[in-house]
Protein backbone atom coordinates (compact mmCIF):
# COMPACT_ATOMS: atom_id res chain seq x y z
CA UNK A 1 0.00 0.00 0.00
CA UNK A 2 1.19 3.50 -0.84
CA UNK A 3 0.96 6.05 1.94
CA UNK A 4 2.60 9.12 3.40
CA UNK A 5 3.62 9.17 7.03
CA UNK A 6 4.49 12.83 7.60
CA UNK A 7 2.08 15.77 8.08
CA UNK A 8 2.72 18.09 5.16
CA UNK A 9 1.09 21.43 4.40
CA UNK A 10 -2.14 20.90 2.55
CA UNK A 11 -3.19 22.72 -0.61
CA UNK A 12 -6.95 23.26 -0.57
CA UNK A 13 -9.41 24.29 -3.22
CA UNK A 14 -10.94 27.74 -2.88
CA UNK A 15 -14.29 26.43 -1.61
CA UNK A 16 -12.53 24.42 1.07
CA UNK A 17 -10.63 27.48 2.29
CA UNK A 18 -13.93 29.30 2.74
CA UNK A 19 -15.21 26.40 4.85
CA UNK A 20 -12.04 26.41 6.94
CA UNK A 21 -12.47 30.15 7.56
CA UNK A 22 -16.07 29.60 8.64
CA UNK A 23 -15.15 26.73 10.97
CA UNK A 24 -12.42 28.86 12.57
CA UNK A 25 -14.87 31.69 13.17
CA UNK A 26 -17.37 29.32 14.81
CA UNK A 27 -14.99 27.15 16.79
CA UNK A 28 -11.98 29.24 17.85
CA UNK A 29 -14.19 31.24 18.34
CA UNK A 30 -13.25 34.49 16.66
CA UNK A 31 -15.39 37.05 14.89
CA UNK A 32 -15.02 37.27 11.14
CA UNK A 33 -13.93 40.89 11.56
CA UNK A 34 -11.20 39.92 14.02
CA UNK A 35 -10.01 37.17 11.68
CA UNK A 36 -9.76 39.79 8.94
CA UNK A 37 -7.84 42.01 11.36
CA UNK A 38 -5.46 39.13 12.02
CA UNK A 39 -4.89 38.61 8.30
CA UNK A 40 -4.34 42.33 7.69
CA UNK A 41 -1.92 42.37 10.60
CA UNK A 42 0.21 39.75 8.90
CA UNK A 43 0.17 41.80 5.69
CA UNK A 44 1.19 44.86 7.68
CA UNK A 45 4.09 43.05 9.41
CA UNK A 46 5.41 41.81 6.07
CA UNK A 47 5.07 45.21 4.43
CA UNK A 48 6.88 47.31 7.05
CA UNK A 49 9.80 44.86 7.06
CA UNK A 50 10.29 45.33 3.32
CA UNK A 51 9.30 48.93 2.51
CA UNK A 52 10.09 52.23 4.16
CA UNK A 53 7.81 55.27 4.37
CA UNK A 54 9.25 57.09 1.37
CA UNK A 55 6.99 55.42 -1.16
CA UNK A 56 3.26 56.17 -1.45
CA UNK A 57 0.96 53.17 -1.00
CA UNK A 58 -2.03 52.95 -3.34
CA UNK A 59 -4.56 50.35 -2.24
CA UNK A 60 -7.08 49.17 -4.83
CA UNK A 61 -9.95 47.49 -3.01
CA UNK A 62 -12.86 45.49 -4.29
CA UNK A 63 -16.24 45.10 -2.53
CA UNK A 64 -15.62 41.74 -0.83
CA UNK A 65 -13.49 40.49 2.02
CA UNK A 66 -10.33 40.76 -0.05
CA UNK A 67 -11.10 44.46 -0.30
CA UNK A 68 -11.79 44.49 3.43
CA UNK A 69 -8.28 43.14 4.02
CA UNK A 70 -6.99 46.05 1.94
CA UNK A 71 -8.96 48.62 3.95
CA UNK A 72 -7.66 47.22 7.24
CA UNK A 73 -4.10 47.29 5.89
CA UNK A 74 -4.55 50.91 4.76
CA UNK A 75 -5.56 51.89 8.29
CA UNK A 76 -2.63 50.06 9.92
CA UNK A 77 -0.05 51.52 7.54
CA UNK A 78 -1.44 55.05 7.88
CA UNK A 79 -1.35 54.90 11.69
CA UNK A 80 2.30 53.81 11.37
CA UNK A 81 3.06 56.92 9.29
CA UNK A 82 2.89 55.52 5.74
CA UNK A 83 1.26 57.70 3.08
CA UNK A 84 -1.71 55.62 1.95
CA UNK A 85 -4.63 56.15 -0.41
CA UNK A 86 -7.56 53.83 -1.03
CA UNK A 87 -9.27 53.44 -4.41
CA UNK A 88 -12.54 51.55 -4.13
CA UNK A 89 -13.41 49.90 -7.44
CA UNK A 90 -17.20 49.89 -7.24
CA UNK A 91 -18.18 47.03 -9.51
CA UNK A 92 -21.34 46.50 -7.43
CA UNK A 93 -23.41 48.41 -4.90
CA UNK A 94 -23.08 45.53 -2.44
CA UNK A 95 -20.15 45.18 -0.06
CA UNK A 96 -19.46 42.49 2.53
CA UNK A 97 -20.29 43.15 6.21
CA UNK A 98 -16.63 43.06 7.23
CA UNK A 99 -15.78 45.45 4.41
CA UNK A 100 -18.33 47.90 5.84
CA UNK A 101 -16.82 47.64 9.33
CA UNK A 102 -13.32 48.31 8.03
CA UNK A 103 -14.55 51.21 5.92
CA UNK A 104 -16.01 52.75 9.08
CA UNK A 105 -12.79 52.13 11.04
CA UNK A 106 -10.74 53.71 8.28
CA UNK A 107 -12.90 56.85 8.38
CA UNK A 108 -12.93 57.16 12.17
CA UNK A 109 -9.27 56.36 12.87
CA UNK A 110 -7.46 57.94 9.92
CA UNK A 111 -7.66 60.60 7.27
CA UNK A 112 -6.74 58.24 4.45
CA UNK A 113 -8.16 59.54 1.14
CA UNK A 114 -10.92 57.24 -0.06
CA UNK A 115 -11.69 57.52 -3.78
CA UNK A 116 -14.62 55.71 -5.37
CA UNK A 117 -14.00 54.49 -8.93
CA UNK A 118 -17.03 53.54 -10.98
CA UNK A 119 -15.60 54.44 -14.36
CA UNK A 120 -12.22 53.59 -15.87
CA UNK A 121 -11.54 57.28 -16.55
CA UNK A 122 -11.48 57.86 -12.80
CA UNK A 123 -8.41 55.71 -12.27
CA UNK A 124 -5.63 58.13 -11.28
CA UNK A 125 -2.20 58.39 -12.80
CA UNK A 126 -0.05 55.95 -10.84
CA UNK A 127 3.50 57.12 -10.07
CA UNK A 128 6.00 54.40 -10.91
CA UNK A 129 7.71 54.85 -7.53
CA UNK A 130 4.51 53.96 -5.63
CA UNK A 131 3.57 50.56 -4.24
CA UNK A 132 0.20 49.14 -5.27
CA UNK A 133 -1.73 46.84 -2.96
CA UNK A 134 -4.02 44.67 -5.08
CA UNK A 135 -7.07 43.82 -2.97
CA UNK A 136 -9.69 43.62 -5.71
CA UNK A 137 -10.62 39.93 -5.75
CA UNK A 138 -9.74 36.94 -3.57
CA UNK A 139 -9.39 33.24 -4.24
CA UNK A 140 -13.16 32.72 -4.37
CA UNK A 141 -13.42 34.34 -7.81
CA UNK A 142 -15.25 31.96 -10.13
CA UNK A 143 -15.55 33.92 -13.38
CA UNK A 144 -13.12 36.02 -15.38
CA UNK A 145 -12.65 39.68 -14.49
CA UNK A 146 -14.40 41.92 -16.98
CA UNK A 147 -15.68 45.43 -17.51
CA UNK A 148 -14.51 48.05 -15.01
CA UNK A 149 -12.45 45.55 -13.00
CA UNK A 150 -10.57 44.42 -16.11
CA UNK A 151 -9.85 48.02 -17.14
CA UNK A 152 -8.50 48.84 -13.68
CA UNK A 153 -6.34 45.71 -13.77
CA UNK A 154 -4.88 46.78 -17.12
CA UNK A 155 -4.08 50.23 -15.76
CA UNK A 156 -2.36 48.75 -12.69
CA UNK A 157 -0.34 46.32 -14.80
CA UNK A 158 0.82 49.10 -17.13
CA UNK A 159 1.75 51.51 -14.34
CA UNK A 160 5.32 50.34 -13.80
CA UNK A 161 4.71 50.43 -10.03
CA UNK A 162 5.56 47.55 -7.72
CA UNK A 163 2.47 45.40 -7.12
CA UNK A 164 1.62 43.33 -4.05
CA UNK A 165 -1.41 41.05 -4.27
CA UNK A 166 -3.43 40.11 -1.20
CA UNK A 167 -3.91 36.31 -1.02
CA UNK A 168 -4.02 35.82 -4.81
CA UNK A 169 -3.54 38.11 -7.84
CA UNK A 170 -6.91 39.57 -8.71
CA UNK A 171 -8.50 37.78 -11.63
CA UNK A 172 -6.58 34.52 -11.12
CA UNK A 173 -8.54 31.39 -10.21
CA UNK A 174 -7.28 29.21 -7.39
CA UNK A 175 -7.08 26.03 -9.46
CA UNK A 176 -7.73 25.69 -13.19
CA UNK A 177 -7.30 28.83 -15.32
CA UNK A 178 -7.82 27.20 -18.71
CA UNK A 179 -11.12 29.02 -19.27
CA UNK A 180 -9.98 32.23 -17.60
CA UNK A 181 -9.36 35.53 -19.40
CA UNK A 182 -5.79 35.70 -18.16
CA UNK A 183 -5.15 38.99 -19.95
CA UNK A 184 -7.37 40.43 -17.19
CA UNK A 185 -5.25 39.18 -14.30
CA UNK A 186 -2.99 41.29 -12.09
CA UNK A 187 0.72 40.75 -12.70
CA UNK A 188 2.04 40.94 -9.16
CA UNK A 189 5.62 41.27 -8.02
CA UNK A 190 4.65 39.65 -4.71
CA UNK A 191 1.67 37.59 -3.63
CA UNK A 192 1.02 37.26 0.10
CA UNK A 193 -1.20 34.21 0.48
CA UNK A 194 -2.99 33.34 3.72
CA UNK A 195 -2.18 30.07 5.51
CA UNK A 196 -1.91 27.85 2.39
CA UNK A 197 -0.56 28.14 -1.15
CA UNK A 198 -3.08 27.88 -3.95
CA UNK A 199 -2.92 25.05 -6.45
CA UNK A 200 -2.54 27.52 -9.32
CA UNK A 201 0.71 28.75 -7.72
CA UNK A 202 2.31 25.42 -8.66
CA UNK A 203 1.90 25.93 -12.41
CA UNK A 204 4.60 27.62 -14.53
CA UNK A 205 2.24 29.59 -16.77
CA UNK A 206 0.97 31.49 -13.70
CA UNK A 207 4.37 32.73 -12.52
CA UNK A 208 3.99 35.99 -14.45
CA UNK A 209 0.86 36.79 -12.41
CA UNK A 210 1.99 35.59 -8.99
CA UNK A 211 5.60 36.78 -8.86
CA UNK A 212 7.30 35.78 -5.63
CA UNK A 213 4.80 34.33 -3.19
CA UNK A 214 4.91 33.96 0.57
CA UNK A 215 2.65 32.11 2.99
CA UNK A 216 1.34 34.21 5.88
CA UNK A 217 -0.08 32.04 8.70
CA UNK A 218 -3.24 33.55 10.19
CA UNK A 219 -4.11 30.91 12.78
CA UNK A 220 -6.87 28.99 11.04
CA UNK A 221 -8.22 26.17 13.18
CA UNK A 222 -5.97 23.07 13.10
CA UNK A 223 -8.88 20.68 13.70
CA UNK A 224 -10.65 21.57 10.47
CA UNK A 225 -7.35 21.68 8.59
CA UNK A 226 -6.60 18.12 9.71
CA UNK A 227 -10.11 16.91 8.97
CA UNK A 228 -10.46 18.44 5.51
CA UNK A 229 -9.30 16.05 2.80
CA UNK A 230 -7.27 17.11 -0.20
CA UNK A 231 -5.06 15.22 -2.65
CA UNK A 232 -2.53 18.08 -2.79
CA UNK A 233 0.35 18.85 -0.44
CA UNK A 234 3.28 21.27 -0.25
CA UNK A 235 6.48 19.71 1.10
CA UNK A 236 8.79 21.69 3.41
CA UNK A 237 11.83 20.97 5.57
CA UNK A 238 9.91 19.92 8.67
CA UNK A 239 8.18 17.25 6.61
CA UNK A 240 11.44 15.78 5.30
CA UNK A 241 13.49 15.84 8.50
CA UNK A 242 11.70 12.84 10.11
CA UNK A 243 12.27 10.77 6.97
CA UNK A 244 16.09 11.00 7.07
CA UNK A 245 17.50 7.73 8.42
CA UNK A 246 19.90 7.89 11.37
CA UNK A 247 23.23 6.10 11.22
CA UNK A 248 24.70 3.94 13.98
CA UNK A 249 28.32 3.96 15.08
CA UNK A 250 28.82 0.32 14.09
CA UNK A 251 27.12 0.54 10.71
CA UNK A 252 29.07 -0.53 7.61
CA UNK A 253 28.70 -0.10 3.87
CA UNK A 254 26.69 -3.29 3.50
CA UNK A 255 23.89 -1.78 5.56
CA UNK A 256 23.45 1.13 3.14
CA UNK A 257 22.66 -0.84 0.05
CA UNK A 258 24.12 -1.52 -3.35
CA UNK A 259 22.87 0.83 -6.07
CA UNK A 260 23.13 -0.20 -9.72
CA UNK A 261 22.95 2.50 -12.41
CA UNK A 262 22.63 1.56 -16.08
CA UNK A 263 23.16 4.04 -18.88
CA UNK A 264 25.48 5.97 -21.09
CA UNK A 265 26.39 5.92 -24.75
CA UNK A 266 29.29 7.40 -26.64
CA UNK A 267 29.33 11.12 -25.90
CA UNK A 268 26.96 10.75 -22.95
CA UNK A 269 28.93 8.75 -20.39
CA UNK A 270 28.97 11.84 -18.16
CA UNK A 271 25.26 11.38 -17.38
CA UNK A 272 26.02 8.10 -15.61
CA UNK A 273 29.04 9.63 -13.89
CA UNK A 274 26.91 12.41 -12.43
CA UNK A 275 24.24 9.97 -11.27
CA UNK A 276 26.82 7.68 -9.68
CA UNK A 277 28.58 10.49 -7.84
CA UNK A 278 25.25 11.83 -6.60
CA UNK A 279 24.28 8.36 -5.36
CA UNK A 280 27.53 8.09 -3.41
CA UNK A 281 27.19 11.60 -1.97
CA UNK A 282 23.66 10.70 -0.86
CA UNK A 283 24.96 7.77 1.16
CA UNK A 284 24.69 4.54 -0.82
CA UNK A 285 27.07 1.94 0.58
CA UNK A 286 28.07 0.65 -2.84
CA UNK A 287 27.45 1.90 -6.36
CA UNK A 288 27.99 -0.11 -9.53
CA UNK A 289 27.47 1.30 -13.02
CA UNK A 290 26.97 -0.52 -16.31
CA UNK A 291 28.28 1.55 -19.22
CA UNK A 292 29.48 0.89 -22.78
CA UNK A 293 32.99 -0.49 -22.61
CA UNK A 294 34.56 2.62 -24.07
CA UNK A 295 33.23 4.54 -21.08
CA UNK A 296 35.04 2.40 -18.53
CA UNK A 297 38.12 4.60 -18.17
CA UNK A 298 36.04 7.78 -18.09
CA UNK A 299 33.92 6.43 -15.26
CA UNK A 300 36.81 5.12 -13.17
CA UNK A 301 38.64 8.43 -13.48
CA UNK A 302 35.58 10.56 -12.69
CA UNK A 303 34.08 8.37 -9.96
CA UNK A 304 36.83 6.11 -8.57
CA UNK A 305 34.54 5.10 -5.69
CA UNK A 306 32.09 3.41 -8.09
CA UNK A 307 32.51 -0.09 -9.52
CA UNK A 308 32.07 -0.55 -13.26
CA UNK A 309 30.54 -3.29 -15.37
CA UNK A 310 31.63 -2.88 -18.99
CA UNK A 311 28.97 -3.68 -21.54
CA UNK A 312 30.13 -5.93 -24.39
CA UNK A 313 29.23 -3.08 -26.72
CA UNK A 314 31.73 -0.25 -26.92
CA UNK A 315 29.08 2.38 -27.68
CA UNK A 316 25.64 1.49 -26.26
CA UNK A 317 23.96 -0.60 -23.57
CA UNK A 318 23.17 -4.11 -24.76
CA UNK A 319 23.78 -6.54 -21.87
CA UNK A 320 20.81 -7.79 -19.86
CA UNK A 321 20.77 -6.89 -16.17
CA UNK A 322 22.08 -9.27 -13.50
CA UNK A 323 19.54 -9.03 -10.67
CA UNK A 324 21.68 -9.70 -7.64
CA UNK A 325 23.30 -8.45 -5.44
CA UNK A 326 21.77 -5.05 -6.09
CA UNK A 327 19.34 -3.32 -3.71
CA UNK A 328 17.90 -0.92 -6.29
CA UNK A 329 18.41 -0.11 -9.96
CA UNK A 330 18.30 3.11 -11.94
CA UNK A 331 18.23 3.10 -15.72
CA UNK A 332 18.21 5.63 -18.52
CA UNK A 333 20.69 8.50 -18.21
CA UNK A 334 22.46 9.03 -21.52
CA UNK A 335 21.72 5.53 -22.82
CA UNK A 336 20.06 6.32 -26.14
CA UNK A 337 17.12 4.43 -27.62
CA UNK A 338 18.78 1.79 -29.83
CA UNK A 339 16.90 -1.49 -30.24
CA UNK A 340 19.47 -3.40 -28.15
CA UNK A 341 19.05 -0.87 -25.35
CA UNK A 342 15.27 -1.16 -25.63
CA UNK A 343 15.60 -4.90 -25.02
CA UNK A 344 17.53 -4.19 -21.82
CA UNK A 345 14.75 -1.92 -20.55
CA UNK A 346 12.13 -4.55 -21.41
CA UNK A 347 14.01 -7.30 -19.61
CA UNK A 348 14.48 -5.12 -16.55
CA UNK A 349 10.88 -4.04 -16.03
CA UNK A 350 9.68 -7.59 -16.73
CA UNK A 351 12.00 -9.39 -14.30
CA UNK A 352 13.19 -6.92 -11.65
CA UNK A 353 11.12 -7.01 -8.44
CA UNK A 354 13.03 -4.58 -6.24
CA UNK A 355 12.98 -0.75 -6.29
CA UNK A 356 13.55 0.81 -9.71
CA UNK A 357 14.11 4.35 -11.01
CA UNK A 358 13.38 4.98 -14.70
CA UNK A 359 14.71 8.20 -16.21
CA UNK A 360 15.72 9.97 -19.41
CA UNK A 361 16.15 7.68 -22.44
CA UNK A 362 14.58 4.74 -20.61
CA UNK A 363 11.44 6.88 -20.42
CA UNK A 364 11.71 7.65 -24.13
CA UNK A 365 12.00 3.93 -24.80
CA UNK A 366 8.80 3.38 -22.80
CA UNK A 367 7.04 6.07 -24.81
CA UNK A 368 7.91 4.08 -27.95
CA UNK A 369 6.65 0.84 -26.37
CA UNK A 370 3.57 1.81 -24.37
CA UNK A 371 2.38 -1.76 -24.05
CA UNK A 372 5.19 -2.19 -21.50
CA UNK A 373 3.74 0.40 -19.13
CA UNK A 374 1.64 -2.13 -17.25
CA UNK A 375 4.67 -4.26 -16.43
CA UNK A 376 6.28 -2.04 -13.78
CA UNK A 377 7.44 -3.67 -10.56
CA UNK A 378 5.55 -2.54 -7.46
CA UNK A 379 8.27 -0.13 -6.33
CA UNK A 380 8.89 1.84 -9.50
CA UNK A 381 9.62 5.57 -9.76
CA UNK A 382 9.54 7.46 -13.06
CA UNK A 383 11.30 10.85 -13.22
CA UNK A 384 10.20 12.63 -16.42
CA UNK A 385 10.51 16.26 -17.32
CA UNK A 386 7.35 17.70 -18.95
CA UNK A 387 8.30 16.75 -22.52
CA UNK A 388 9.16 13.18 -21.51
CA UNK A 389 5.86 12.93 -19.67
CA UNK A 390 4.02 14.27 -22.70
CA UNK A 391 5.51 11.46 -24.78
CA UNK A 392 4.27 8.95 -22.22
CA UNK A 393 0.82 10.33 -21.42
CA UNK A 394 -0.08 12.63 -24.31
CA UNK A 395 -0.16 16.38 -24.79
CA UNK A 396 -1.84 18.76 -22.35
CA UNK A 397 -3.16 22.23 -23.10
CA UNK A 398 -2.17 23.55 -19.67
CA UNK A 399 -0.52 22.50 -16.41
CA UNK A 400 -3.79 21.67 -14.66
CA UNK A 401 -4.70 19.22 -17.41
CA UNK A 402 -1.20 17.73 -17.23
CA UNK A 403 -1.61 17.30 -13.48
CA UNK A 404 -4.84 15.39 -14.03
CA UNK A 405 -3.05 13.16 -16.55
CA UNK A 406 -0.22 12.61 -14.10
CA UNK A 407 -2.66 11.48 -11.40
CA UNK A 408 -4.42 9.17 -13.84
CA UNK A 409 -1.14 7.73 -15.19
CA UNK A 410 0.22 7.04 -11.72
CA UNK A 411 -2.94 5.25 -10.66
CA UNK A 412 -3.34 3.29 -13.89
CA UNK A 413 0.22 1.95 -13.94
CA UNK A 414 0.76 1.66 -10.15
CA UNK A 415 3.94 3.71 -10.02
CA UNK A 416 5.29 6.94 -8.59
CA UNK A 417 5.78 9.80 -11.04
CA UNK A 418 8.25 12.58 -10.24
CA UNK A 419 7.26 15.27 -12.75
CA UNK A 420 10.18 17.70 -12.70
CA UNK A 421 9.70 21.46 -12.62
CA UNK A 422 9.95 24.53 -10.41
CA UNK A 423 7.60 22.81 -7.96
CA UNK A 424 8.34 19.20 -8.87
CA UNK A 425 5.16 17.14 -8.43
CA UNK A 426 5.44 13.67 -6.88
CA UNK A 427 2.30 11.59 -7.44
CA UNK A 428 1.38 8.19 -6.00
CA UNK A 429 -1.20 5.61 -7.10
CA UNK A 430 -3.74 6.63 -4.44
CA UNK A 431 -4.26 9.94 -6.30
CA UNK A 432 -2.22 12.21 -4.04
CA UNK A 433 0.36 14.75 -5.20
CA UNK A 434 3.18 16.43 -3.28
CA UNK A 435 4.65 19.66 -4.65
CA UNK A 436 8.24 20.49 -3.72
CA UNK A 437 9.31 23.77 -2.14
CA UNK A 438 13.06 23.79 -2.93
CA UNK A 439 15.01 24.50 -6.12
CA UNK A 440 15.69 27.46 -8.38
CA UNK A 441 16.23 28.47 -12.04
CA UNK A 442 19.98 27.81 -11.77
CA UNK A 443 19.16 24.09 -11.79
CA UNK A 444 17.94 24.34 -15.38
CA UNK A 445 21.27 22.96 -16.55
CA UNK A 446 22.56 19.83 -18.26
CA UNK A 447 22.91 16.89 -15.90
CA UNK A 448 20.69 18.20 -13.12
CA UNK A 449 18.14 15.46 -13.78
CA UNK A 450 20.87 12.79 -13.75
CA UNK A 451 21.86 14.02 -10.28
CA UNK A 452 18.24 13.62 -9.11
CA UNK A 453 18.15 10.08 -10.47
CA UNK A 454 21.30 9.24 -8.53
CA UNK A 455 19.92 10.75 -5.32
CA UNK A 456 16.62 8.83 -5.50
CA UNK A 457 18.41 5.62 -6.48
CA UNK A 458 20.72 5.97 -3.49
CA UNK A 459 17.83 6.44 -1.07
CA UNK A 460 16.04 3.40 -2.50
CA UNK A 461 19.20 1.32 -2.12
CA UNK A 462 19.44 2.43 1.51
CA UNK A 463 15.98 1.02 2.19
CA UNK A 464 13.79 4.12 2.02
CA UNK A 465 10.20 3.41 1.01
CA UNK A 466 9.66 4.55 -2.58
CA UNK A 467 7.39 7.48 -1.62
CA UNK A 468 9.82 8.63 1.07
CA UNK A 469 12.72 8.25 -1.35
CA UNK A 470 10.92 10.33 -3.97
CA UNK A 471 9.89 13.10 -1.58
CA UNK A 472 13.25 13.21 0.21
CA UNK A 473 15.24 12.96 -3.01
CA UNK A 474 13.37 15.78 -4.72
CA UNK A 475 13.61 18.05 -1.67
CA UNK A 476 17.30 17.25 -1.09
CA UNK A 477 18.13 17.83 -4.75
CA UNK A 478 16.38 21.21 -4.77
CA UNK A 479 17.97 22.30 -1.51
CA UNK A 480 21.44 21.35 -2.77
CA UNK A 481 20.70 23.48 -5.82
CA UNK A 482 19.66 26.38 -3.58
CA UNK A 483 22.92 26.11 -1.66
CA UNK A 484 24.88 26.01 -4.92
CA UNK A 485 23.23 29.26 -5.98
CA UNK A 486 24.11 30.87 -2.64
CA UNK A 487 27.75 30.10 -3.41
CA UNK A 488 27.55 31.37 -6.98
CA UNK A 489 24.63 32.57 -9.11
CA UNK A 490 21.83 31.15 -11.25
CA UNK A 491 23.80 31.35 -14.47
CA UNK A 492 26.93 29.70 -13.11
CA UNK A 493 25.54 26.57 -11.42
CA UNK A 494 26.36 23.23 -13.06
CA UNK A 495 25.24 19.76 -12.09
CA UNK A 496 28.52 18.98 -10.31
CA UNK A 497 27.90 21.97 -8.04
CA UNK A 498 24.60 20.42 -6.95
CA UNK A 499 26.38 17.19 -6.05
CA UNK A 500 28.99 19.10 -4.05
CA UNK A 501 26.22 20.66 -1.94
CA UNK A 502 24.32 17.47 -1.05
CA UNK A 503 26.17 17.14 2.26
CA UNK A 504 25.27 20.63 3.41
CA UNK A 505 21.70 20.03 2.27
CA UNK A 506 21.50 17.03 4.60
CA UNK A 507 22.82 19.17 7.45
CA UNK A 508 20.26 21.90 6.82
CA UNK A 509 17.43 19.40 6.78
CA UNK A 510 18.58 18.03 10.13
CA UNK A 511 18.91 21.53 11.58
CA UNK A 512 16.00 22.78 13.68
CA UNK A 513 16.56 26.39 12.55
Please give a handful of descriptors for the protein shown.
16% strand; 513 residues; 18 helices; 11-stranded mixed β-sheet; alpha/beta
What's a quick, concise take on this entry?
The protein is an alpha/beta fold.
Descriptive overview:
- With 513 residues, the chain is of the alpha/beta class.
- Strand 2, helix 3 and strand 3 form a beta-alpha-beta unit.
- The N terminus is likely disordered.
Biggest sheet details: 11 strands, mixed
Which residues sit in consecutive blocks of at least 5 with pLDDT less than 50? Answer: 1-6
Percent helix among the residues?
Answer: 25-40%
- Structural class assignment: alpha/beta
Tally of strands: 18
| Proportion of strand residues | 15-25%
Task: Provide mean pLDDT, rounded.
Answer: 96
Ordered list of secondary-structure elements with their pairings:
Layout: E1 9-11, H1 14-27, H2 32-50, E2 57-61, H3 65-80, E3 84-89, H4 97-109, E4 114-117, E5 131-135, H5 147-157, E6 162-166, E7 190-194, H6 207-210, E8 212-216, H7 222-227, E9 232-235, H8 237-240, E10 258-262, H9 269-281, E11 286-292, H10 296-302, E12 307-311, E13 328-331, H11 339-351, E14 356-358, H12 360-368, E15 380-382, H13 386-393, H14 399-413, E16 416-419, E17 425-427, E18 433-436, H15 448-461, H16 466-487, H17 495-500, H18 502-510
Parallel strand pairs: 2-3, 2-5, 3-4, 5-6, 6-7, 7-8, 9-18, 10-11, 10-13, 11-12, 13-14, 14-15, 15-16
Antiparallel strand pairs: 1-9, 16-17, 17-18
Amino acid sequence: MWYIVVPVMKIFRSGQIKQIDEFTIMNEPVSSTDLMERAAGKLYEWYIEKFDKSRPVLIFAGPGNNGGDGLALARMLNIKGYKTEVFFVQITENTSPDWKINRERLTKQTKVPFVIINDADQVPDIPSESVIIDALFGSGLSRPAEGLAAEVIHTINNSGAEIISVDIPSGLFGENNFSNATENVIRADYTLTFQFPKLSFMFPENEKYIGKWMILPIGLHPEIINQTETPYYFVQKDDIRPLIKKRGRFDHKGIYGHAFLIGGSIGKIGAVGLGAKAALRTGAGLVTCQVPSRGNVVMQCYVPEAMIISDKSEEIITDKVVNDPFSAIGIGPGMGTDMESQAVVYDLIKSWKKPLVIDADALNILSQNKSWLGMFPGKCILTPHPKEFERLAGRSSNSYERLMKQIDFTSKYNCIVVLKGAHTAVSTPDGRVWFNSTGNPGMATAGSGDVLTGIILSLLAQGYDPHDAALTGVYLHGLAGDIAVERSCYESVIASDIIACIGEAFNRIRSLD
